[in-house]
Design goal:
- By secondary structure, the protein is α/β, with parallel strands linked by helices.
- The protein is built from 15 helices and 14 strands.
- The protein has a seven-stranded parallel beta sheet, with helices on both faces. Strands 4-3-5-6 form a four-stranded parallel beta sheet, with helices on both faces. A three-stranded antiparallel beta sheet has the order 2-1-7.
- Helix 2 packs across helix 3, helix 2 crosses helix 11 and helix 5 crosses helix 14.
- The protein is globular and about 65 Å long.
Amino acid sequence: MGEEFLGFQRLNKQVGIRNKIVILPSVVCVNNIAKQIAKKVENSVEICHPLGCAQFGRDFTYTLRTLAGLAKNPNVYGALVIGLGCENLTSRQLANQIKRSKKPVEFFNVQDVKGGSIAAIEKGIKLAKKMTGEAKELKREPFDFSHLVLGLECGGSDSISGITANPAVGIISDKIIELGGTFILPEFTEWIGTEHLLIKRARDEKTAEKIKRLLDAFLERTMRLGIDFRGIQPTPGNIKGGLTTIEEKSLGTIAKAGKAPIQGVINYSEVPKGKGLWLMNEPGIDVESMTGLAAAGSQLIIMTTGQGTPTGNPVTPVIKICGNPKTCDWMKCNIDVDASKIITEDKSIDEISKILWHKVKDTCNGQLTQTEILGFEDIAIWRVYGTFPLSS
């Protein structure tokens, strides 16, 4: 028998490793109502955000796709969408997008509920509790890892990550591909300096050209603003951690992606169009990046961190792996896998990858990660440009 995990079957044939109810505001104005509902409903999470009103164009599209994608994630059983009633990203529009995943979805607007916020909270609690009762009836079943979409992320990178935690993750990424699964490498600004290596891994000329065009266009745009991006990277924290050039940082980033061929490049929060390795076009900011991965359907995220970061995600468990001995000691409550033993105990990268693989399987089977235990549920949606690009 091959490698398996116990997950929750969805009506659209996807498989979740969690079974959550999402309380989703369509607009910032009702965030607090969503929070009050989630407090009273078991196994629910609110996805609060500062957007949803007066947006248009690509900015609106990204917000709609990302919010709907979070609710459509396989780890979600059903969603309650709450609108105010006068915003342009309406609760009905958002609910209709989510319904395409065949999940249970309810929606209403606060302005349509007699009694205002108090009555709206009571209504929301009633609707969400009904979904919770239905979700409890589902039992975990065995599935192979071809059903898994793994998201990769790094944050607080240092010079140690690229020779410890990141290559250990790369072994896991290749294993997921070997088992017929999918993984996504985001952070396109951290491919700079290694694009020639990624292009060689592209499955066809079209994909290779897209990688090159994406990076060339980004650097050209920043130069027009009078900024040489290669001169402002690595970040101050990266430099403190021993990284000296963007190329060093990027080599560590792409090490997480193992050796698999690149199937294509997807936009922020876009679902991959097939199995295998996919690159995601997004800015490489930790919380925005993990939000995009979860919205693209990743049931699990592995995040490498050198100097430590506590961030998590409301719908997708995040496994933290760290290769820095000091960080593993000082921030041990945030770390799931200690890769610093490569340095302190002469463990091999392969040995650490086996420990990480056991953690992946345990998490897929329901074991909580440290971010889940601590209750860290962070959301940030990438805005391509401000809604009103005013000049100063």
